[in-house]
# Entry
Amino acid sequence: MARTGRIAFMAAALIMGVAASGEAQQRPSDSSERLGVEVGRLLISPGLHLSLGYDSNVAFRSEQELVRSSPTFYVLPNLRFRTLNPAMVDASGSFAVGWRQFFAGDQDVNRFSFLEVGGNGEVVINPHGPVSVGINERIRLSNEGAYTVENDDDVFSIPFQEYGMDFSSDGVLVNQVGLNVGVHPGGRNASRMGFSADVGAFHRYYHFIERDSSDRHGVGATLQLNWNPLPHTTFFIDGSVMRTLYVRDISQPLSSEFLNDTIATSRALLNVNSTPVRAGVGVRSLLLPRLGTTLRLGYTNGFYDEGDSPSRVYALGQLEAQFSSWNRLTAGYSTAFADSAFANYINYHRVWVTWQAHISRMQFGVTAFGQINRYAEIDDQVVDAGGNVVEVYSTTNRVDYPVGVQGDIGVTLGPHVVTGVRYRFMANFTDFQAEPAGGFPDDLFLGGDPSFVRHRFEIFLSMRL
# Structure
């Protein structure tokens, strides 16, 4: 688990809606790391985040659909813990449970009020020995959509939302449990021989709260070999294999609730199991005292049981500049494929940039990303139980362009309190439409248009013991 810094950044990480995402941000050590209450060998730090704001598009709807806006209230209790001076057991984690309430005076809007759960935890046995065993847990429950301003260099775990199937306003639960065995002479964070290895196994589960037709499991294994021939430089070889299994068999129709209580089937919407594999090399290095880089390059294949499978190169490049102890810039690019319940998969290209700074009592943060998603080609029809065409689905030349920007300004009021404002912009641009046979009634797009534009503004107060 990465170490954290000042209270403002600790609070800001948790108000993302997924507490675990903030753990990846490393900070210099200072006295604020002792915030919390010592309980035995654990340091426990509870917190509370409150915010009032405005959401311009509650349900991620396109401009051709009925867009609803609403004032919002958000409350997020959260908890962090870590072991003090770990010996044989090292435990750490961060968990949060929040509720976002919409107040539009309209039941159709208020029903989108939702519960958020986010966090991760890890217990490592024998962390300082030559062999360690770790158990980890990651969970996220949210209906914020897949495209957020958080960045993750795991080319298989970006949780893409199934836009175009009206899933974008439903809650999605992602839970992963893993086991990791590390071989590292000198301890987990040191290797006197310059060599270390990690072998892992995991189970990942995706559950769509309202539309369970796309629920799926992922069972897999990972391997990474590390070599440190130079100071501040690590070369690595890594690989993984995973079996993706949909809960609903590919031969079964969608839920009857999908299209006005008609049983509909479509090749574009079939659940196709797959066995994605990847293998590659990479390097992490400190090029200059305040400039680091991560590079990854490899081959990946989806191996879908039916239909087209991607066979391609995946790549990632990231630069991290630490201009001063509290002035940090990160920028990166990645490309790979991701599983999709609409068509088999998408190929994507993603760029991102993050800037964080701390000046006296002021904290500033800006994060932005842009992505190009090209879907596997499918051209098919949705038919009801009587064989009548209900909708036409075609992903031929379908390309989506999701983008996001987030800006934060915070003020530290004391060692335990930070307040500030946040603005988030999210959008998905595409010309794709799923058109019902005979056209849309009354010139209104009822669904299947995955484009949207959303603005959210919040004033927040975060407290931590």
